[in-house]
Amino acid sequence: MNDKDQFCVSPGPWFSFVALLLIFTVLGLLLTPWTFLAIPFIYLGVAHSAQNFNLADGCLPFVVCILAVCATAFWPNVGLIIILGTCSGWITGCAERAIRARLVAVSTPIEKETHGKDD
């Protein structure tokens, strides 16, 4: 079996999401209720993570971080919480996907279409 017969599969990083959800919930209860604002952005970061930390899959979290930097000028707490939630979700999601990734054999080969031509 050569490298063309394998591809990398990574299950969803749900441990990262649950751990960060618990951390930010405790911080919201102990420090400030503004911390609860980070929960949807944690999900956004975790959902758009990839096991190789590439920015093609993580483009949306970085766009949100850039917009949050702009929002920090007007609402410092809101912008900072959005940045922390999105970046922590993306980084821990990517790390979990990289740790849990494995190679899987392709079960059926991809056949070349001939479009009615006999080769």
Protein traits:
119 residues, mainly alpha, two-stranded antiparallel ribbon, 4 helices, 55% helix
Structural class: mainly alpha
- Detail the poorly predicted runs: none
Mean residue pLDDT: 82
Helix content: 40-55%
The amount of beta strand, in percent, is 5-15%
Calculate Rg over CA atoms.
Answer: 20 Å
Describe the strand arrangement of the main beta sheet, using strand numbers. Answer: 1-2
| Topology, number of strands | 2
How would you characterize the largest beta sheet? 2 strands, antiparallel
Number of helices: 4
Helices and strands, with pairings:
Layout: E1 6-9, H1 14-30, H2 39-47, H3 59-72, H4 76-100, E2 102-105
Antiparallel strand pairs: 1-2
Helix pairs in contact: 1-2, 1-4, 2-4, 3-4
How does this model look, in words?
The chain has 119 residues and is mainly α. It has a domain at 32-105. Helix content is 55%, strand content 7%. The protein contains four helices and two strands; from the N terminus they run βααααβ. It has helices spanning 14-30, 39-47, 59-72, 76-100; strands at 6-9, 102-105. Strands 1-2 form a two-stranded antiparallel sheet. Helix 1 runs antiparallel to helix 4 and helix 2 packs parallel to helix 4 (76-100). The model has no long low-confidence stretch (mean pLDDT 82).
Summarize the structure.
The protein has 119 residues and is mainly α. The chain has helices at 14-30, 39-47, 59-72, 76-100; strands at residues 6-9, 102-105. α2 (39-47) runs parallel beside α4 and α3 (59-72) runs antiparallel to α4.
